[in-house]
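Researcher: I'm preparing a figure for a lab meeting and need a structural model of a single chain. I don't have an experimental structure, so a prediction will have to do for now. The sequence is pasted below. Please return the structure as tokens so I can convert it later.
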Amino acid sequence: MKVLFICTGNTCRSPLAEALARSMYPGEEFASAGLFVSSAQAASPGAAAVAAENGLSLDGRRARPVDEAMLREFDLALTMTAEHCRLLRGRFPVWAAKVARLGDAAGMKRDVADPWGGGPEEYRACFGELKKMLERMKWS
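Model: Understood. Here is the structure written out token by token.
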């Protein structure tokens, strides 16, 4: 299974989801991108810190915008919010069947809150939420 995680700027939630999923499911392929990426920014300092606290690294990670080629390549695109899901399906309607909100796919029916601009606790809460959701996923 090839899974693409999508968030707003590809500097917090989706890179954390990608790194965490890679550590949890080594036999699968994961990547991430953002809906509104203006430059190839590094992961946010808060995301990098919480990743490091959990034995993961976002070093060298750069934001990239989602495009049609990515959606063609991946089996599933999981967004962090219902609004991301709506926007992605609207932008790329031919690939809409591949798009779902992570919370829905995990059976939790909720968004992953954006920690951007928050402190360490917001990033830790985001990481914990992603971990709970990813633990519930079945990739095969």
